[in-house]
Amino acid sequence: MPVRPADHHLTEIEAALARGEAALSPLVASWSRSAHLHGLDPARVRRPERMMAAELAAAREKMAPLIHAAGPNLDRLFQAVGSVGCCILLADANGVPLERRGAPADDPVFANWGLWTGTVWTEAEQGTNGIGTCLVEGQVVTIHRNQHFLAHNTILSCMTAPVFDPQGNLAGVLDVSSARSDLTKGFMTLVVQAVTETAQKIEAQAFQDAFPKARMVLVPGNERHLGGLLAVDDDDLVVGATRAARLHLGLSGDLQNQPRPASDVLGHRGAETLEDAERSLLARALARAGGNVSAAARGLGISRATLHRKLGPRSK
Question: What is the pTM of this model?
Fold first, then answer.
């Protein structure tokens, strides 16, 4: 009798767990959580649970700022991948997709597999999968076909990136899923890159929306990640930082209630005395006046002579 795909999948998972590979492989670690922590059976067909309409509406309201920031970015991502049989899901921190993009011709297929708003895609419910495993790992993951824990889900390929809120906390995940069997490694790599960049753009937009009156300061990134952002107020205090900026600069805590001087955060020498602060104020006024001393003095409400004197050589 030929071996059924589901039987082969079960054998592969059991063998990996028996070899104790969970400490060496994030994928096997997820399989281990699925089997031992959540008590799931790989052979069991487990359709994702669906939220009631009222629950979905409440979840969407709670995540409204991030959904608003995501909208145009999801549209652009869908333009890139929607025509090749992919759907896009933005899920919250509970593993529930709250926003979706998909081609009408593909919708019945994705709806049948539960790739729809209001479904629950945690590891506890569906075992190893893009959304649930990304939430546990807090980093970009790709779960390709038989890497899923449940044999029922091995038709899917999921490329997922975490999305962090303006306080640097994990707020949800962005997922691109496909049921196509002919996805190449190269194409999936491109999709992963697009998903990662889109997740970072959503974070950046949500951050700017959260601090509309602040000055945005870019913190350099690296070849894999966009730079982080700092929100700096009129007193030159850092009142917010994206997760990337927090990691790069070693920031933590509630910056809105406990702001940090921008000069300290960025490692630049700032105004340390009242004299320094005054000279900085005068220099900015002069710059705004295009170097016109008389105009700068009028703007500050002081005489031209006073401005000259205060801008003179710094006392020793």
Answer: 0.84
